[in-house]
Amino acid sequence: MDTIFTISFSVGLPKTSSTVCFNCHKKIQRSEIRVSKKKYDRQLYFHLPCYTPEHNLFILVSNLTIDLDENSGLIFENWLNSWNSHFLPPDPNISIAWNKTKSFEVPKCKRLRLLINVFEFLTYQDICCNLASVSKEFYEISWNNYLWGALFQRDFNKLCEGNECRKLYIDTFFNCCTRCGISSNKYIRCTLLKRIICKNCFESKSCELLDKNTIKRVYGINTKYLNLKYHIGNNGNRRLCYKFLVEAAVKERRGMIKNKVVQLLSDKYGSNHDMTKIVSSIDTNDMDQIRKTYYKITYHPKISNEIPYESYKMIYSAIRNGGLNFARLSKIYDLIKKDFP
Ligand SMILES: [Zn+2]
Ligand SMILES: [Zn+2]
């Protein structure tokens, strides 16, 4: 796992042939590549083939001082590549990305760790139904507790302690509602989520099914930006998706556009400019306003009336609609020019 050790040394061609190799006690000739390494207060020298790094770790070139000519450089590069081929490069994302506070201790075996890291991106079905039958090694990994701990955390957003992560994962996957996490015997098997939803959750507002036109009408956002999967409705041409999935995707898209606009504005006008500050304070979780008239319901952007700028209204709509193109952006810049003469 993560380690505080690094390997560093200097490598070069000696200027004299008077230094002696610490390993074989023979003189190091001027034509031979010499590794020099400080240990405590002593400077130790080695022939390159006599030198074995003190830790079994990947060597980063940035930790070395290299002074070699073209020929010896190639020899050293070969040596380095062959040493490094046994180890994984240090990876800043070693702890699993979906939980920054806990990392899993994977046994030191490089291949196993590598494979587990790859399997962590796959689904339960991929691992149990397909990969487990590929080879003995894959089969064994499909039972690996670390792997299931990581999958559990990824899919259920909870830590899984103990040695039975696989069992717990499968129990949770098949018996617990994908929305509330509670196990219930009244449930619906959902083909879109490939999980079950309990009857309570299924009948709640968040599991309402919305079609593409409704999504566009309510959230003002083009569904091409949302990257959603849909059920095909009964009559064959309605694409339906759960409201909670739609809302999560809408939130993500708007957040992304907002960050982009804030970035553009602060690059152009500075982060202290009024418009940059106003846009930074837009709450992308709450941008839709429902208006009921006596015969119908309409949805509108929740624009603040206290901000008089036309440019603000335009930016607000762009974020809400999840779309920002060049034409719109240049219009926004024109309006800002008018609003802040
Ligand atoms: Zn030697
Ligand atoms: Zn539920």
UniProtKB/TrEMBL annotation:
Transmembrane spans: none
Gene3D superfamilies: 1.20.1280.50
Segments forming domain F-box: 114-154
Pfam families recorded: F-box-like
Domain of life from the UniProt record: Eukaryota
Protein name: F-box domain-containing protein
Species whose genome carries this gene: Stentor coeruleus
Biological classification of the source: Eukaryota, Sar, Alveolata, Ciliophora, Postciliodesmatophora
